[in-house]
């Protein structure tokens, strides 16, 4: 800052100027105070936004239509040393009695004895095969032609086997032990050798098995009609629907109780998380809207209409009834607003409701009280889900299917023989499934009936590492022609180009091809059509539909079950947390949301205040420059006056001296 303090006059010019500009500075201070208030409110609304996002995240577990937390089940076993149980979503709550008669085991075979681990092994190729899996060949040469080298090569290159060197104490010799990585009676190990016996010892695995390959045997029930089932693994799926059994130990004849129950703890945890997060945002808005009469301090949101709107809407949603649902209000299962406007849980009542022990409350209806859900009148049309654009139905929506989804199916051009010999001349092929070309696949050598060959062909295709999850089913028609059907449905499913040396014995000439069809249909709302698009078995409402936008249903009907008119009626309900989710999404919307509008208002006010501050600062600076100029001019005048005065004084002094001299 330019200063002229005391140059001539000795005045504190800077203080005088700042005092004269005090009004403008007061204006600037007032504007900055207003800006701080607006910024504080803006920051507080960011806090509301963060609380809403947290609440929204806790709603997802309650809103799921499939794999809902309310469908979760737990499994328990009275003897977990023998068997443990894990229940999947939707498993039927019941008690089952089982006994583990036998565990599945892996095939183990051993070679003849060797005098030392460094004994020389014959060079050449040796091939291993486990069950129906592809053959794997290793080559023995001078770099690996010892017991240890042989074993290491197997472990490095053969994916279906483990190999080790063991010491047979009784015989005093070392032996090579081969262990299948796959349990079950079908997973036997076979070894074939093309090694040169003149170059070393040929490993011989033709002796009796060290451990036979066995299937697990599980008995369901303890009565005369008990069901016995065999599995190639000690992980058993399918005996009890949606329940996985892990077999740990065989205990023939020991009856073990498996209890499948509703997982009320997971449901309560999800409900508690929702309630806690809901209460947190209500408390946040309440706290930020308070006035302290003792300190006379008002918190940032006192009297703010936008904050009140958000709070009141949240409270309204959780207290409203849910039309179309067997349960109308959260209070029916023990969740209600208390006197402070927060949700409170009656834990005992909620427990009873989830377990189906509460009068007039169907546990199966509870999830309808929360998220978006749908109930269909047809088992062939299943509700999968929707989005915020999917509207609850005042009257049921009709589902009109015009085309059932189809798998891809190819049938061999020629019939296969009743008895087929597979050898090195006709054992390989490639096939394209779902637009993926397999690697070269190999059939096991042997003599097959047509049915046996179909089963084996299916196993080989489904074991392809390239095709992976793209599975098929192979069957034999009455005309002895093989047919290959994809597991997948829809236009993305296809089968083609089975060719190779095995094609002719299978009846294929390589020209056979087919693609599946997507489901096709529409939704009818009060008789008015709304567009739907099919992908595989899934029918999805067009995003622009007024009522059924994004509505997804799975259609498992066959072509024979599709007729003129609607195949099902679908009742869609929007529960409490589903509505909350929709409202929060609308508030947070980046283009049209309330918080965006509020933030834009804050930004506009801050920009306006900044502009006002800039104007006052510019005016202040202009006045300061003017005053500095004026005071500079004043100092100049005073300086001139002082100079003139000094001159006159000097002259007067000179005149006095002159007069005195003349008198002498």
Automatic annotation (TrEMBL):
Domain Flagellar hook-associated protein 2 C-terminal: 227-451, 566-642
Domain Flagellar hook-associated protein 2 N-terminal positions: 9-107
Keywords: Bacterial flagellum, Cell projection, Cilium, Coiled coil, Flagellum, Secreted
GO CC terms: bacterial-type flagellum filament cap; bacterial-type flagellum hook; extracellular region
Places the protein is found: Secreted; Bacterial flagellum
Single GO BP term: cell adhesion
Major localization listed first in the record, in broad terms: secreted
InterPro entries: FliD, FliD_C, FliD_N
Classification via Pfam families: FliD_C, FliD_N
Family to which the UniProt record says this protein belongs: Belongs to the FliD family.
Function: Required for morphogenesis and for the elongation of the flagellar filament by facilitating polymerization of the flagellin monomers at the tip of growing filament. Forms a capping structure, which prevents flagellin subunits (transported through the central channel of the flagellum) from leaking out without polymerization at the distal end.
Quaternary organization: Homopentamer.
Protein name (database record): Flagellar hook-associated protein 2
Chain's gene name: fliD
């Amino acid at each position: 800052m330019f200063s002229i303090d005391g140059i001539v006059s000795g005045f504190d010019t800077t203080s005088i100027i700042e005092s004269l500009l005090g009004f403008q500075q007061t204006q600037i201070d007032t504007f900055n105070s207003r800006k701080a208030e607006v910024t504080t409110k803006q920051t507080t609304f960011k806090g509301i936004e963060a609380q809403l996002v947290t609440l929204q995240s806790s709603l997802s577990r309650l809103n799921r239509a499939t794999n809902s937390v309310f469908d979760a089940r737990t499994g328990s076993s009275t003897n977990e040393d023998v068997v443990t149980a894990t229940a999947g979503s939707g498993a039927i709550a019941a008690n089952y009695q089982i006994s583990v008669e036998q565990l599945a085991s892996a095939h183990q075979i051993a070679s003849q004895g060797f005098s030392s681990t460094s004994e020389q092994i014959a060079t050449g190729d040796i091939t291993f095969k486990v069950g129906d899996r592809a053959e794997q060949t290793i080559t023995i040469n001078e770099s690996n032609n010892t017991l240890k080298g042989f074993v290491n090569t197997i472990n490095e290159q053969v994916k279906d086997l483990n190999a080790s060197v063991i010491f047979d104490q009784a015989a005093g010799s070392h032996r090579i032990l081969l262990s299948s990585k796959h349990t079950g009676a079908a997973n036997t190990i076979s070894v074939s050798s093309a090694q040169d016996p003149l170059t070393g010892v040929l490993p011989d695995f033709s002796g009796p098995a060290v451990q036979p390959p066995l299937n697990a045997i599980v008995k369901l029930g303890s009565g005369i009609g008990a069901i016995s089932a065999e599995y190639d693994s000690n992980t058993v799926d399918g005996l009890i629907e949606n329940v996985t059994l892990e077999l740990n130990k065989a205990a023939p004849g020991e009856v073990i109780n498996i209890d499948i129950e509703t997982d009320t703890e997971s449901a309560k945890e999800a409900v508690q998380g929702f309630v806690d997060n809901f209460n947190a945002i209500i408390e946040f808005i309440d706290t930020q809207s308070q006035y302290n009469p003792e300190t006379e301090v008002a918190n940032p949101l006192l009297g703010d209409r936008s904050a009140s709107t958000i709070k009141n809407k949240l409270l309204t949603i959780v207290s409203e009834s849910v039309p179309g649902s067997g349960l109308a209000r959260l209070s029916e299962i023990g969740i209600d607003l208390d006197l402070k406007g927060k949700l409170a849980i009656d834990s005992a009542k909620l427990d009873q409701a989830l377990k189906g022990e509460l009068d007039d409350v169907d546990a199966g209806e509870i999830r309808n009280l929360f998220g978006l859900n749908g109930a269909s009148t047809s088992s062939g049309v299943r509700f999968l889900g929707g989005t915020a654009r999917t509207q609850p139905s005042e009257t049921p929506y009709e589902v009109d299917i015009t085309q059932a989804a189809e798998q891809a199916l190819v049938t061999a051009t020629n019939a296969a023989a009743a008895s087929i010999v597979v050898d090195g001349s006709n054992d390989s092929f490639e096939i394209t499934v779902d637009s993926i070309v397999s690697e070269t696949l190999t059939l096991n050598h042997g003599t097959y009936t047509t049915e046996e060959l179909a089963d084996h062909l299916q196993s080989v295709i489904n074991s392809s590492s390239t095709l992976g999850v793209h599975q098929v089913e192979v069957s034999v028609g009455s005309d002895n022609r093989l047919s290959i059907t994809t597991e997948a449905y829809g236009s993305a499913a296809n089968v083609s180009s089975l060719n190779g040396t095995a094609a002719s014995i299978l009846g294929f000439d390589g020209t056979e091809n087919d693609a599946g069809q997507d489901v096709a249909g529409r939704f009818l709302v009060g008789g008015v059509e709304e567009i739907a698009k099919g992908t595989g078995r899934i029918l999805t409402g067009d995003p622009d539909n007024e009522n059924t936008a994004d509505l997804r249903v799975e259609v498992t009907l066959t072509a024979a079950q599709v007729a003129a008119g609607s195949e099902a009626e679908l009742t869609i309900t929007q529960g409490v947390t589903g509505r909350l989710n929709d409202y929060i999404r609308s508030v947070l919307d980046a283009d049209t949301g309330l918080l965006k509008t509020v933030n834009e208002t804050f930004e506009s006010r801050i920009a306006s205040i900044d502009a006002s501050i800039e104007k006052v600062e510019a005016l202040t600076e202009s006045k300061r420059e003017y005053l500095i100029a004026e005071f500079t001019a004043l100092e100049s005048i005073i300086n001139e006056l002082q100079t003139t005065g000094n001159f006159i004084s000097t002259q007067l002094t000179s005149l006095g001296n002159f007069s005195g001299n003349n008198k002498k």
